[in-house]
Amino acid sequence: PASRIAGIGETIFARMSALATRSGSVNLGQGAPDVDGPALALHAAERALMAGQNQYAPGIGIPALREAVAAHQWRHYGITLDPASEVVVTTGATEGIAAALLALVDPGDEVVVLEPYYDSYVAMIQMAGGVRRPVTLRAPDFRLDAEALRAAVTPRTRLILLNTPHNPTGTVLTRAELDVVAEVAIAHDLVVVTDEVYEHLVLDVAAEHVPLCTLPGMAERTLTLSSLGKSWSLTGWKIGWATGPEHLVTALTTAKQWLTYTSGAPLQPAAAVALDEADDFPATLRTSLRARRDHLVAGLNGLGIETYMPQGTYFALSDVSGLGWADGMAFCEALPERAGVVAIPTSVFHDDVEAGRHLVRWAFCKQESVLEEGLRRLGAAD
Ligand code: PMP
Ligand code: GLN
Predict the structure, then answer these.
(1) What is the pTM of this model?
(2) The Aminotransferase class I/classII large domain covers which part of the protein (predicted)?
(3) Which CATH number, 3.90.1150.10, 3.30.2400.10, 3.40.30.10, 2.60.120.10, labels domain 3-37+281-380?
(4) Which among 88, 94, 267 is the best mutation to test ligand 1's pocket, defined by most ligand atoms within 8 Å of the CB?
């Protein structure tokens, strides 16, 4: 195989989900909700399929969805976008990440990225020929260290790849933290690609999602990625979008057209219906996720598994070193047999492996009964 993929193994999410299936475990690993998104979106998809919307959609996405994305950005954040030139539909945020990195990173360019990172960032920085420069969010607070961010930038830095709310720590970057990102990006003339797929899943009532592009001087240098998957519980649809200034959206689209050309036609009108007519779905989901977060975090702590309260996303991290497991990977590999439960070790999301070695991630986008069963099994384990 090409050096482009050297050392890139199977994604941990696929590996751990296969392990869950094989072992009959409660799967608290991969972030996949076990209840579908809004029924009116499902019906809209069914109608689109039966109405013959089954051939290629325009490469940049159907107008109705681009307009719905622009309207969403305006309604929630006061961002104005031209749906014709500043919005492109992608095959999930995953394709947005891939196309953005292929479009903006030259071989040898450095990409500053938060760690623990989402695993596709690592693979795509490598495939683009880039070099990652991680900035570590450290336990117990997982805040962005301004000095570490400044120190990560060199003359070879091309872009910053941000993620807020952050998977897997749940950190929701504050305006003050984003101010530092903006200061660094402007000082070094960098582009920022910001992955905001958990934008509506801020669970801490004192926290707020601030899109980076709304900070002074940032609109012209920020490419914002999001998708339907998390906030509308439609992860399998793989409909996402990228928004930003025309020059960055055009660059991303140039790469996207050779990856997929276009994204799933019948799901696009249905995604527009979700954004336009089920705008209240994420808030309802958020309320129920908050209860599930509290249930899981309290349950784990009650079992003596030291667990941090995440501000956002649907993941929580635990420190398993207090249980006598110095290595989260070993803990997660033994857990299906010991307890019939699957979790994700976070060391695989780090260059600084020591910073994440003792941590494991649980997904709580599961029905209460599933969380309850997971906790019961953990409680019964040796
Ligand atoms: N970014 C982050 C941080 C994620 O957690 C995920 C989730 N799976 C994605 C991107 C991918 O999103 P999508 O399913 O829309 O491709
Ligand atoms: N984003 C999801 C997670 O973090 C998984 C997506 C995937 O399997 N690639 O669990």
Answers:
(1) 0.97
(2) 26-368
(3) 3.90.1150.10
(4) 94
